[in-house]
Amino acid sequence: MHSHGHDPNSGGAPDVVVVGGGVIGLVTAWRAAQRGLRVTVVDPEPGGGAARVAAGMLAAVTELHHGEQTLLALNLASARRYPAFAAELEEATGLGVGFRPCGTLAVALDADDRAHLRELHALQRRSGLESEWLTGRECRRLEPMLAPGVRGGLRVDGDHQVDPRRLARALVAACERAGVTLLRTSVRELLVRGDRARGVVLADTEGSAGTELAAGQVVLAAGSLSGRLAGVPAEAVPPVRPVKGQVLRLTVPAAYAPFLSRTVRAVVRGGNVYLVPRENGELVVGATSEEMGWDTTVTAGGVYELLRDAHELIPGITELPLTETRAGLRPASPDNAPLLGPTALPGLHLATGHHRNGVLLTPVTGDVMAEVLTTGVLPSDARPFTPRRFPAPVVREEQPA
Prior knowledge:
The chain is α/β, with parallel strands linked by helices. The protein folds into three domains: 16-52 and 166-240 and 334-389, FAD/NAD(P)-binding domain; 104-157, no CATH class; 241-332, D-Amino Acid Oxidase, subunit A, domain 2 (D-Amino Acid Oxidase, Chain A, domain 2, 2-Layer Sandwich). Helix content is 25%, strand content 25%. The protein has helices at 23-34, 69-93, 111-126, 136-142, 164-177, 300-313, 362-375, and strands at 16-19, 39-42, 57-58, 104-108, 132-135, 152-156, 160-161, 181-183, 187-193, 196-202, 212-214, 217-220, 241-251, 263-268, 271-277, 282-286, 322-332, 339-342, 348-352. A hairpin with a 4-residue loop joins strand 15 and strand 16. The radius of gyration is 22 Å and the shape is globular. The N and C termini lie far apart (68 Å).
């Protein structure tokens, strides 16, 4: 029985080449292949990318920021798709993605935080979202490991979690099963002819100059690197920059379980800290937010800040083994919302700029991109996120001397 994958050797260029095999590139490829398109993903390490570092909070409600109501609608649409999306991915691959509908508790440690959380609660209510105000005592009844100083909290049962590493692995498998070709190499530049994107040039390999890979359409889904691809005309270059995040992983020994039953987060000294308990006993603590360019060093200061803030929230954390420290780069756009769909260059689409919401927005991004690749039309819920909302950079002509 032939699935509707295509034999990559059956001749003819792919319909779509996706540059970047993180969760966003992979979900785009999978959904496009399911609609009958021939898709190739180019990435030296498919399933890598920022999601390898991410904690996997699906926090559409707890992460609500003033002025981000349009993004809220997209985040909620994606959060609603998650249970079915996770089930479909598990069914297609036999691999779990660690989807866990455990809910989130956001807590306040002092009077300022409490005022801030109260304000967030009001904003959530105005936005029609479900969250429940709890006293400090009620918070501690839910999560006995919380510090005695907790002044109050918001219980959001609809904010779930997924394991982004397992998600990435399952998406690689789903792509392979759907007939997507995965080329484990780098893209050297975009191929532009006759004012249209026509494919990509692959990086040189042993003894051969860069190979041209022609394609009907190109999707640039290279995360924070998306703005650095050679050959993209100035008016179509994605305005994304890297925002560094350091994350810790600890292990909860059986003797300490259950340590936390849901995601717990707080604002400590103006910085966000969160603790995400996985079913496998892993506890993820994050995340710093640093404008450091392309640096992915794990610093003593970053680890110290996370542990200090987490300890203030959950004093017992210092007893746990620290098993991993990682840093990754979030792709941030000027308004912190994603860039989805057609650019100023015909044939070139973007799926990047997801900043803190890449894992949350994976299901909706796959649907949006598959729609645009098969019909040429950006669905209405994605229209606010067209790359064309940003004016093209001014390219100054060199003055003759």
